[in-house]
Amino acid sequence: MCKKSALAFIFILSLSIATAQIIPRFPQQEMREDMQLLKKILEANHPSLYWYSDKAHIDSIYNLIYNSLPDSLNEIQFRNKLAYWISEIRCGHTSVRYSKKLTKRLTELRYPAFPLSLKVWKDSMVVLANRNILDTTLTRGTIITGINNRTNKEIIDSIFHYISTDGFAINHKNQVLSNNFSDWYKWVFGIDSVFTVQYVDSAGGAASVSIKSFTLMPPKRDSSQKKLAVLPTAIPPQTIPSLSRRARNLLSKRVLLLDSTNKTAVMRLTGFSGGQLKRFFRKSFRTLHHLAITDLIIDLRENGGGKVDNYIKLTKYLTDHPFKVGDTVQAISRKFEYGRYIHPSWIYWIAMNIGGRKEKDGTIHYRRYEKHYFQPITKNHFEGHVYLLQGGYSFSAATMFISSLKGQKNVTVVGEETGGGWYGNSAMHIPEIKLPYSKLRVRLPMYRLVMDRNRVKGRGIVPDWEINPSSYAIKKGVDLKMTLIQEEILRRKLH
């Protein structure tokens, strides 16, 4: 081993030891007691525990993991065990998180990681970025075919076992993995000092190269700075530094871009919470009406959901008919059994006792969302063509919003299948379970929502116009979906 390689190995080893020292370990008995408690809490409170997987299957996975627990595991390893079991519920709002203490530590820790950011879809993996800026081989747009003699399919399938999603719609898992491939690879396969990467070379042939791990120091930055990195390029970059922190935070949540010449607008929404959305919608549609905008693109690709009343408000400006939230909004209980482990249970207990109604079968129904039809807003109502741009991160309230408009004659849904379920989901109130020994946190949705009982269960919303990722578009840095929509609008206007 050469001197440089030896030093690199020692450095990786020292970081691995340092990492291990700050990650707590749990004995077998504590892990088993946490698992037993979590199973009881889910069985007593979760509204859709056996919606997609029957009890026998869920219990068999539980027993397999419970009986295979070794003498001890660290928090990351135990979290993976729980996540494997929880993902079989197939509920995107039921997921396992690290303890608050470890989450904070991981944001401050220097640790080695796989050096490539990858876009993942189906069995494809394409380089988005290489942290080694001197590497001229694995550049943006390079097609990856394997890592350390594991095929793409083996890698993706292995990691997918630890990611929760609604039903059998895996596009959410694609997006989650794409957003943080380095960490997911490390959590599932461990840390290596050198990786052998198989790829397609410039001549279209099979090739491989060895690359070193990258020692990552996660930057400390606020959420608004994080979102600014993906603001549409139509916003002049030189104007961003002059904005206040509050203004930047608002722009990270919602923005309206106007092309008054072509009578087109783009509304980008990264969620349905925060951002003073009701005021933003009111001002935006007043502006659209004043400028006689005829085509509106609403970009929901980063929208993981949020407050139901905000999606309802936006829908009112666009729908051509009265609508309701769902056919069924149902909880199995509002007692919050094992409430001392559910946080904050008292807030949701109050909400469910005020807003929920107990039926003869003992279940709790949110009748307003089941029975009330919301009417379109007439003032500044948008009558032009609407393009809803969606993807794997379009989830929860974003999926509910798209569902309420899909099929309307002036609405075209574009992009990839949503991560959120087309038939329904489990959400509304989502407190958090905190396990007593490991301190791992598990999200617990309280209501089952069936948006339309006549829809097929188990998939996300399939777009009217499907546009999949492209290695060529990634290489060129082109937003293919937005570009094709804008070209279609221009073509239609010219004809």
Describe the model:
With 495 residues, the chain is α+β, with helices and mostly antiparallel strands. The chain folds into three domains: 3-100; 111-216, PDZ domain (Pdz3 Domain, Roll), CATH 2.30.42.10; 223-494, 2-enoyl-CoA Hydratase, Chain A, domain 1 (Alpha-Beta Complex). The strands form six sheets. Strands 5, 6, 7, 8, 9 and 10 form a six-stranded antiparallel beta sheet that branches. A six-stranded mixed beta sheet has the order 12-13-14-19-20-25, sandwiched between helices. Strand 19 (385-390), helix 15 (397-405) and strand 20 form a beta-alpha-beta unit. Helix 3 runs antiparallel to helix 4 and helix 12 (308-316) runs parallel beside helix 15 (397-405). It is globular. The model is unreliable at 4-18 and 221-240 (pLDDT under 50).
What topology does this entry show?
Blueprint: H1 3-22, E1 25-27, H2 28-45, H3 55-68, E2 72-74, H4 75-87, E3 96-97, H5 100-108, E4 111-113, E5 116-121, E6 124-130, E7 143-147, E8 150-151, H6 152-160, H7 171-179, H8 181-189, E9 194-200, E10 206-212, E11 214-216, H9 223-228, H10 245-253, E12 254-259, E13 264-269, H11 277-290, E14 295-299, H12 308-316, E15 328-331, E16 342-343, H13 345-355, E17 357-358, E18 364-365, H14 367-371, E19 385-390, H15 397-405, E20 411-415, E21 424-427, E22 432-434, E23 441-443, E24 447-450, E25 465-466, H16 471-476, H17 480-494
Parallel strand pairs: 13-14, 14-19, 19-20, 20-25
Antiparallel strand pairs: 1-2, 3-23, 4-11, 5-6, 6-7, 7-8, 7-9, 9-10, 12-13, 15-18, 15-24, 16-22, 17-18, 21-24, 22-23
